[in-house]
C-alpha cells in the first residue's frame, strides 16, 4: 500500500498548530526537500550531518516511505524540522501467516523542543492514520524501552546479544558437519543481488520478522555511500546448497586486539539463513576462522540453535532484551491473521486509552488452528490493555508471566492457561534486524 497520499491526521495537525508548529509531509524522492529532514533525523540520533551523496542515496531508496516533519518558523534555521518520523507498510510474519504492518521509524524531536508533546502528536497521528487506512498493526524497533508502551505498543519479540569464545566453544561432535553445499566470498553488490531472495524466504518463515525494504537491505550488505568507511572492512560469505542455490549469508567485520594478533573479534553485522544446513555451515565457519578469539553478534535469536552446536555451551555469553514492538490497531484482523496452538474459545476484554482497538472480542479457534474473532457484549474471561495483547500476540511470552506481573486480570478460572495454549508458537518469534 502506498501511504504517501494519505492526509495528515487533523487532531495532531491542530494540536501542533496550537503550539505554533507546522506539521507537513516531505517528498522523500526529492533530495532538496529531504536534505533538511535528513539533517534533523541524523541530529536526533547523534549521528553526523548527512552529506549530499548520502541524501541522494537516501532519496533513491526511501521514496516509498511517508516522510513527515514538524517545523518551527521562529528558529534561526526554519527549514530544518524540529521533529521527524517516517513510516511505510510492509509484511509482518506471524505464526501461520503474514499481515500488513505500519512500520514507524526515525522518530526524533530536537533537544531544543523536547518534552512538550511533539512526539505524542506524531505517534498518535501515525496510529490514527494507519487505523483509518485499515492497517491492522503498527510496529517499530526502539532506542529506549520506556517510550512506546504509553501508545499501546508491547515488546513482542526479544533478541540475544551473543558473544562466543571461539576456541573454548569448539564444534560439538553431534552438530551438523560436512554440508553438501559450499561457502563462497561475495562482494557487496553480489550479495545485494543474489541474497535478497533467501532473506525474504527466511523472514517469511520466522514469526516476528518484517519484510526488509530496499534501504535496510542495501545498508546491511554495504552497497551505499561509504560515509564511515564501513564497507571497506566488510566481509560477506554466502552459503550455496548442493544445487547452487544461495541459502545463507553472513556479513561480518574483523576487529583486531590491541596487543595480540591471534585474538581478533568477529563482529557479525548480519546473518540470515533459509535452511538449517546453511545456518550450521555459516556458524561453524565463523567459529573456526583463524586468528580469532571471539565471535560477537548482537541480533541473534533468543533461541539461537548454534548454542546447541557448541562443545562447551558456557563459552557463550547471552544477554537478551526487547526488540520488535507491536501495536494492534484492529483486533479482529490481527487475531484472525495468525494460527493457534489449541482449539478453544475465550472472551478478551481489551483496554485502549487511544480508543482505537478497545472492546470485548470473542476468539474462537478451531481444530484447523484458524480463528474467528467478533465483538461481543458477553463478559470477558480476561482483561488486559492493548500493549499486553500486542506483546503476547506472536507467542514469544507466557500469558502466565504477564498475569504474575499484574498485566492481565482473569475473571474465569483457568483462562490464563487456556490463553497460553492458544497463543503458543512452535517457532521462537524473532526479528533479524533493526529498522
Ligand atoms: C521508532 C524510533 O524511531 S525509536 C527512536 C526514538 N528517538 C530517539 O531516541 C532520539 C532521541 N530522542 C528524541 O528525539 C525525543 O526525546 C523523543 C522522540 C524520544 C521524545 O520526544 P518528546 O517530544 O520529548 O516526547 P513528548 O514530549 O511527546 O513525550 C510524550 C511522553 O513520552 C515521555 N517521554 C519522552 N521521551 C521519553 C524518554 N526518552 N523516556 C521515557 N519517557 C519519555 C514523556 O515524558 C511523555 O510522557 P507522558 O505521556 O507521561 O506525558
UniProtKB/TrEMBL annotation:
Residues 331-431 form the Enhanced intracellular survival protein domain. It holds the Pfam family Acetyltransf_9. Acetyl-CoA binds at residues 107-109, 115-120, 143-144. InterPro entries: Acetyltransf_17, Acetyltransferase_Eis, Acyl_CoA_acyltransferase, Eis_dom, NAcTrfase_Eis, SCP2_sterol-bd_dom_sf. It comes from the Bacteria. GO terms for biological process: aminoglycoside antibiotic catabolic process. Residues 44-57 have a biased composition (Basic and acidic residues). Belongs to the acetyltransferase Eis family. This is GNAT family N-acetyltransferase. It comes from Humibacter ginsenosidimutans. The lineage of its organism: Bacteria, Bacillati, Actinomycetota, Actinomycetes, Micrococcales.
